[in-house]
Amino acid sequence: xxxxxxxxxxxxxxxxxxxxxxxxxxxxxxxxxxxxxxxxxxxxxxxxxxxxxxxxxxxxxxxxxxxxxxxxxxxxxxxxxxxxxxxxxxxxxxxxxxxxxxxxxxxxxxxxxxxxxxxxxxxxxxxxxxxxxxxxxxxxxxxxxxxxxxxxxxxxxxxxxxxxxxxxxxxxxxxxxxxxxxxxxxxxxxxxxxxxxxxxxxxxxxxxxxxxxxxxxxxxxxxxxxxxxxxxxxxxxxxxxxxxxxxxxxxxxxxxxxxxxxxxxxxx
Amino acid sequence: xxxxxxxxxxxxxxxxxxxxxxxxxxxxxxxxxxxxxxxxxxxxxxxxxxxxxxxxxxxxxxxxxxxxxxxxxxxxxxxxxxxxxxxxxxxxxxxxxxxxxxxxxxxxxxxxxxxxxxxxxxxxxxxxxxxxxxxxxxxxxxxxxxxxxxxxxxxxxxxxxxxxxxxxxx
Lengths: 268, 170
Fold this sequence. Notes:
The structure holds two protein chains of two kinds. Chain A is mainly β. Chain A has one domain (3-106, 139-265): Sandwich (Immunoglobulin-like), CATH 2.60.40.10. Chain A contains two helices and 19 strands. In chain A, strands 2, 5, 6, 9, 10, 11, 15, 16, 18 and 19 form a ten-stranded mixed β-sheet that branches. In chain A, strands 1, 3, 4, 7 and 8 form a five-stranded antiparallel β-sheet that branches. In chain A, strands 12, 13, 14 and 17 form a four-stranded antiparallel β-sheet that branches. Chain A starts with a helix and ends with a strand. The longest helix of chain B has 16 residues, at 3-18. Chain B starts with a helix and ends with a strand.
């Protein structure tokens, strides 16, 4: 494979897959409800089946650990193998921690000498990438968030506060307080504003051992809200993607955002 | 104060003085290859699931190669989420070491903080037990307080708990 093509492919793995891709990206913590002073280990992978490592690892380039006090946390023993990445976190502060990969960038497509060209990268590099004679230029702002939450001791909500960037889930029901049979309330925001009409897909883990996906599909209401009744205990993958025009953006025509969270539902 | 009123007061005081809750928890003897004493928690809730009082939490008090005993407290999953996770352990008069198989009794007397917190109303006593490489069981006994006469309520577990008895003495 040409070196430049390989670099492009590797770079594209670090960026969020387009919503059109079927693969699911996820972080899987070894536990989500712990007493104080414990360690956890987290797996990250991109795959079709939940939660099996059978495709590519989730790159740890843009991994951010947020401590209960809102400051940046650390991970250790990070390793990216063939099918998964893994890393450990010492939960040395009581409260709720956020573990997230946030990929942000631009997609661009244009016509050049009758050919359609595509590019992905950072906004700062767009000028160099876009040739002078390009026509039909379409720029998309893209962001993808893949996250999970873990609590040591009593839950806190500092890390639940939205940052106003990309697609974010406001969790009225704390992510580490989910139990089978109970209903949880959520709201999606896009760049800080309620996101209406967003389609949300929820799939329970263990897909290998059943014959249907049995996914739950929800659509957010006018205020971006939806509810989920968690029937069975287990690990769940929740994804939402959205595309919106950007009429007021000097650079980009369109905004694509996606969000994934792994939630653990405990038995009663 | 009239003699009659004084008599009434004395009578009322005497009645409160005798009031008592007695909780008996049976930890069953199990024939398993690898037996570990269970973690057990007992607490009282109101109807809205708010915790009135922690009665007992029996867990490994020491640190071993596998960690300190507090590591596995979240396995008492309903106790943990309903109040346990906000507590600083140990708690005088509540926490203690794990108990062996047999029946263990707690007496909550009239002078205890628990009874003082028990306003007239409906409550639920919960007892949760979880055992390493074993199972987990949660029993609930609803009760009203105060009671007009002595009353015994019980529940029976199927695997991790035996007979749980609550004696209510007015």
